Amino acid sequence: MKMTIKKAIISILLLCLAFITVAKATNVSHDGRAFTIDGQRRILISGSIHYPRSTAEMWPDLIRKSKEGGLNVIETYVFWNAHEPIRGQYDFSGNLDLVRFIKDIKKEGLYALLRIGPYVCAEWNYGGFPVWLHNIPNIEFRTMNKPYLDEMKRFTTLIVDMMKKEKLFASQGGPIISAQIENEYGNIMGQYGEAGKEYVNWCAQLASSYQIGVPWIMCQQSDAPQPMINTCNGYYCDKFTPNNKNSPKAWTENWTGWYKNWGGQDPHRTAEDVAYAVAKFYQSGGTLQNYYMYHGGTNFGRSAGGPYITTSYDYDAPLDEYGNLNQPKWGHLNQLHRILLASETALTYGNQTTTDFGNMVTGTSYEHMQHSVCFLGNGNESSDATVNFRNKTYTVPAWSVTILRNCSTEIYNTAKVNTQTTVMIKKEEPQELKWQWRNEPPQKKFKVATLTVSELLDQKVVTNDTSDYLWYFTSVNLNNKSDPLWGKDDVSIRVNTSSHLIHVFVNGLHVGAQFTENGHYKFQHESKIKLRPGKNEISLLSGTVGLPNYGAFFDNVKVGILGPVVLAANDTTGKEQIVDISKNQWTYKVGLQGQLDKLFSLPEAIKPWLLFGLPRDKPMVWYKTWFKTPSGTDPVVVDLKGLGKGEAWVNGNSLGRYWSSYISGKDGCSAPCDYRGPYKPNKCLINCGNPTQRWYHVPRSFLNGQGLNSLVLFEDKGGNPNGVRIGTVKPEKICANTYENHKLDLICNVGQVISEIKFASFGQPNGSCGSFQHGSCSSPQALSAINKLCTGKQECSFQVSEEVLGATGCGKDKHNRLALEAICK
What we know:
Blueprint: H1 2-24, E1 28-30, E2 35-37, E3 40-41, E4 44-49, H2 59-68, E5 73-77, H3 80-83, H4 98-107, E6 111-117, H5 131-134, H6 146-165, E7 176-181, H7 193-209, E8 216-219, E9 229-234, E10 250-255, H8 271-283, E11 288-295, H9 329-342, H10 344-349, E12 351-358, E13 361-368, E14 371-378, E15 385-389, E16 392-396, E17 400-405, E18 409-413, E19 421-428, E20 436-439, E21 451-453, H11 459-463, E22 469-478, E23 491-497, E24 501-506, E25 509-515, E26 523-529, E27 534-543, E28 565-570, E29 576-580, E30 586-590, H12 593-596, E31 621-628, E32 636-639, E33 646-650, E34 653-658, E35 695-698, E36 708-715, E37 725-739, E38 743-747, E39 754-763, H13 782-790, E40 795-799, H14 802-805, E41 817-824
Parallel strand pairs: 4-5, 4-11, 5-6, 6-7, 7-8, 8-9, 9-10, 10-11
Antiparallel strand pairs: 1-2, 2-3, 12-13, 13-14, 14-17, 15-16, 17-18, 19-37, 20-31, 21-30, 22-27, 22-30, 23-26, 23-28, 24-25, 24-27, 28-29, 31-36, 32-35, 32-37, 33-34, 33-36, 37-41, 38-40, 39-41
Helix pairs in contact: 8-9
C-alpha cells in the first residue's frame, strides 16, 4: 500500500513537471500580418551580433546594450568552417560556444533568430564553408549534388539537434523563434538552372523535416516554397512584398553601413537615413526588421573573407567594433524602437489606410479600437513637405518620416536627431615597447614536406585553409654550356599567379615580392635573378588575404601559383630564350615555420629571440614585445602604425590580419554628409588618404589581468615596429543639437564623468559639434542650468524646454534647439 502511494506521488510530481515544461513553451506562428507569439501578433525589432566576431566575455554586455537600445530579438549566423575546421572535428569552445551565446540571449529575456545556412556569406572566409568540403571528390556546392547535400544535411542536423538537446527552440521554452535555411540563394540561383530550383525545394523539405516548432525563413528567395517565409535584404525594404499572402513582411538585413576593404575608405550611413528606412518599412506594413549589423565586431584570426575584407567589421553599427554605443545612431534608433513597440497593437491589428499627397509624400494610419498611430512619409530627396492631415498642418522634412501619436501629435521625425553625438578617441598608453625579433626561414628547411608532384596546385587544395601561406619549391640544374640560361646575367623569373601576394627566393636570397591591389587575383610577377652552375633552389611563397565568400560557383575560384612559371634570358642574337618550369617537380609546404613553431605563443626561453640589430622595412620577420594591461575597463587597442602587412597575436590570441601600409584613396570623402537620398556604399565616405586600418582590437579577455602581455607580429611586407603603441578607446566629448520639448540623455563611459560643459546655447544656435556658435537669440541661463544638472555625473537627463533652460526670447514662431558640447574625463 505504501509503495502504491509513493508511486502515485511520484506520478503526480512527474505530471506537474511535465505541465511546467509545457507551460514554459512558447507557441510561435505567423499570419499575413505578423509573427505571432502565444497567439499575439508582435512587432519584432532584431539586431545581428555574430558570436565569433566578439568574445564570450563581451556577449552579456552586447546583448544588454541591445536590449536597452529597444531590441527584442538577436540574430546570428552559424559559421560552419569555424565549428568544423577538420571534417568530423568540432569546436564549440570560447567565442564559438553557440549554446552559451543563445543562453545569454535568453538570460536578457530576448528572442533569437538563428540563421543556420549553412552558407552565410557575411564577408566571412569562403562564405562559411570549410575548404575541406571543396576537396571532397565530385562535389558541387549549393545544387543537387549528393556529396554536397549529404554534408550540408549532416552539419545542419548537428546544429538543430544541438539546439533541441539544450531546449533552445521556443517550442521547448527556449528563445529561438525562427530559423533560416540557405542564404541569399535567389540572387544567384538562375546560374544553377533547374538544379537550383530543385535545390531550393530540397532545402525547404529538409528544414520542415526537423519539426522544430518555429517558422523557417529564406532570405532573398522570391520563390521560397511553403511553409518557408521569404524575406528581404537591403538598404530599403518598404516596397518588398512576400510571395504568399499568409507570410508576414520581414526584413532580415537592414544594412546599417557597409564593410570595409583593404585600400578603401570607411563607409558611413547616417542615423537619419537608417531611421528613415526603418520607419518607412513599418509604415508600409512590416513587422519584423533585423539590423545587419547591430554589432559588427572584429574578424579575428583569418576569418575575414572577400577577399581583402579588413580585420575590423565595425559596419558603422549602433554598437561599434569595441561594444561602445555608436552615438547618435544607437540613441536615435532607440527612440524609434520605443515608439514602434508602444504602437504594437495598432500596427499589427489596426486597419491600414494610406493617403497619397503626391510628390512622394504619403500618410498612413493604423487604428484598432482605442489604439492608433500615423506616419507621414516624405520620400522626396530635396523638398520639405507641408501636409494637411486630419485638419492639422505638419512640416515633414525631405527624406524623412514623421510619426504621430494617436494620429495627432508629432512625437518623432527621422531627420531630427535628439540624442547625443559621442566623439571617441584612441588614447595612447605611456608605455615604451622593447622589441625582439627572428627571421622567417626563406628556404625549405622544414621538418616534413606536404607533398611533391609535377604540377602547380590550387593553394586551397593543398592547405585546406589552415594557413594564408603556401610554399612552392623546385630546383633548376645548369649542368653545361648548352643550357640556354648558362652564364646569363639578365635572367628573369616570371610567375603567373592567382595569389594576393608572392615572395620569390633563389638560392636563399629574397629577390622580389608583389602584393596585388583591390583583391584582384591574377597577375604576373617578374624579378631579375642570378643562377649559378649546378643546382639552383627556387622557393615561391604564395599568400592569400581571404577567400571569396559570394557569387555563383565562388567555391571554384582557384588561388595560388597556377603558372606558367618561366625563366627567361636573351641569347647572343638578342632573342629571348624561355625555359618553362611549370611541369617541374614541385614540393609543397603549408604555412610559415614560425607558425609551425608557435612563435606567437611559446615562452621566450623555448625559442630564443634576438635582442639587437632590429630590422626595419624588411619582409619575413617576426617581432615580439611585452606590454602592461591598461587600467580601467575601456576597450584596448594596438596601434600598428608604421608596419607593413601581416598578422598580430596577443598572448597567443590572433587579433587578425593587419595591413597598416595600405593607404585608402584620397578622393571621395564627403563632409558634411547629406543624409537625403538613397544610400550606397560610396556615399558619405570618411578616412580618405589614411591607412585603411591602423588600430586593432585587443579584447580584455585576451589580457593577463593587470600583468604583462606578449604582442607578436609576423611582418610579411616590411615595416618599422617602433611606431607601435598600446591604447584605449573612450569618449573625448559629447555633443547634442536637440529640438525643444524633447528629453536629452547625456552619458559618458563607465569610470568617466562629465567634467565640463564646454558650450551650451538654447535658442537659435549655429554650427556643428566642435564648432557651435550662439545664434541671434538664446537663453542666458542655459549653460549654468546644465552645469548644475550634469557636471560631475556619469550621466544626466533633462527636458529641453524654457522651464528648465530659461526663456530664449526668440519668439513663438521659432523652433528652439539646444546646442551642447561637453567633455568626458
